[in-house]
Amino acid sequence: MAKNQKKYTQEFKQQIVDLYNTGNYSFPQLSSEYGVAKSTILNWVRNLSPIQVSETGKRAYHL
């Protein structure tokens, strides 16, 4: 049986990405606080952020 997939608004996704981009929050912190899977947050950051993120979740800033 398939799990019910949650739908998140674009505004919510961007809010999470913005929090991650401050450098004050990690994927596990955001996942725990907002109830969103770490892999989902990683995908949002990859798609909505100018900051590049590696497979391990490490930030890589481009100058």
UniProtKB/TrEMBL annotation:
InterPro entries: Homeodomain-like_sf, Transposase_8, WH-like_DNA-bd_sf. Transmembrane segments: none annotated. SUPFAM superfamilies: Homeodomain-like. This is Transposase. It comes from Blautia acetigignens.
